[in-house]
Design a protein that fits this description.
By secondary structure, the chain is an alpha/beta fold. α3 packs across α6 and α7 packs across α13. The protein starts with 7 loop residues before the first strand and ends with a strand.
């Protein structure tokens, strides 16, 4: 039966980011200022800047499976298995029909279609050379479906197309399905293979929103006066979510409890964001968590280093939290670029260790703060020690005006 009072907790984290392939490695990179952005060669455009992952695709797949599937599928499979193992779960002892997979994506299928058309060109567009794997590679449910097939999970699986808000949306869907009683375990988060399609680079470039810098590690500059656009990146992060009573009954380690969330829409424009609607999304998440703004200890900002986007989010944060707020604010994209569908999940994961290591990782590459992005307690350059962190608020916003917010609380029995 549906129960909105059901407490849902995070018990496992699996991830691959441009600067780490485990939570421990990722966190260490965030505390030491290690960027994962580098030069990357892409079709038709030549050299661009991107966040590129370097995980072991063959850790949980055979070569034949990698060839048959997609990059996004391999990211999902790696992160899914890492999350399950991190949670101390044995899939052989679990009813797999009661496990659900909910993965956020920004886009899917572009990579495979571009590859096939490019290959077809080499053969004079003779359709005999078009792969019979194209359809299963390009359907929207592919990343979650590949994980389902690989793990033998027979419960529901699907991906949620929510632009750059998708990582949070995958997490929110997992919470809702657990509360509805539809599943007993949720694998939830987001994945991205975006750097393997030249189209996303070309589009951002045509918009004047593709980042450039002579030093790739300094290209992503959220809130900085000299920011000049987005660094496109790939990555993935999947959480294992369980009802609190189930987690406690098996003695699971608990990373945090999801106590609030919200999704809303700007209803404004294809690409221009609305700080007013973003503020309303944060306010709704706070209301559902039954807490006041001053109780949030850390805001993980979405800021992508676009001119208008950063300004609108700063306005939203100031509206909700006030100019004299004691809430700390940081940004993770400055290290890894914009991992699109994975961004919300990865950025939340990178901040969860603050609950126990009492450090807030800084925003890097912020040398000259844009006055229009002025925010109180913005953590810059070096980690900020704290006595305690009880609540983290995670912002994640996307094109066509979709906004998502997740609030996680330190777990205490």
């Amino acid at each position: 039966m549906p129960n909105n009072q059901t407490r849902v907790v995070i018990t496992g984290i699996g991830l691959t980011a441009p600067n780490g392939n485990s939570l421990e490695e990722f966190r260490q990179s965030l505390l030491t200022g290690r960027s994962g952005v580098r030069k990357f060669e892409t079709r038709y455009m030549g050299e661009v800047l991107a966040g590129v992952c370097n995980f072991d695709m063959l850790k949980y797949q055979k070569r034949k499976e990698v060839r048959r599937g997609t990059r996004a599928g391999s990211v999902a499979i790696y992160c899914g298995w890492e999350a399950v193992r991190d949670a101390g779960l044995d899939l052989g002892r679990i009813d797999k029909s009661r496990v659900g997979i909910y993965l956020g994506i920004t886009e899917h299928g572009n990579v495979e279609t571009e590859n096939e058309i490019y290959n077809l060109q080499q053969f004079g567009y003779d359709l005999r050379y078009w792969t019979h794997h194209h359809n299963p590679r390009t359907v929207a449910n592919n990343p979650a479906g590949e994980l389902s097939v690989n793990m033998g999970i027979s419960g529901p699986h699907y991906t949620l197309g929510a632009a750059c808000a998708a990582g949070n949306c995958g997490l929110i869907q997992g919470v809702q399905m657990l509360r509805l009683g539809e599943v007993d375990l949720a694998l939830a988060g987001g994945v991205s293979e975006s750097i393997h399609t030249f189209g996303i680079f070309a589009s951002f470039k045509s918009q004047g929103a593709l980042a450039s810098h002579e030093d790739p590690t300094k290209a992503c500059r959220p809130f900085d006066r000299d920011r000049n656009g987005i660094v496109v990146s790939e990555g993935g992060c999947i959480f294992t979510l369980e009802r609190l009573e189930d987690a406690l009954s098996r003695g699971a380690r608990i990373y945090g409890e999801i106590v609030g969330y919200a999704i809303n829409s700007d209803a404004l424009d294809f690409v221009l964001p609305s700080g007013e609607r973003q503020a309303e999304c944060m306010e709704l998440a706070l209301e559902r968590a039954h807490i006041a703004p001053h109780e949030i200890d850390l805001i993980s900002s979405h800021a992508t280093a676009t001119q208008i986007g950063d300004i609108e989010e700063a306005k939203a944060i100031r509206r909700v939290f006030g100019q004299s707020s004691k809430t700390y604010i940081n940004n993770t994209k400055s290290y890894i670029g914009h991992t699109m569908g994975a961004a919300g999940a990865l950025e939340l994961a990178g901040n969860l260790p603050s609950f126990w290591d009492f450090l807030i990782h800084p925003t890097i590459n912020l040398e000259n703060l844009d006055p229009e992005c002025s925010l109180n307690n913005l953590v810059v350059t070096k980690p900020q020690p704290v006595e305690r962190i009880d609540y983290i608020l995670n912002n994640s916003f996307g094109m066509l005006g979709i906004n998502s917010v997740v609030i996680v609380k330190r777990f205490e029995t």
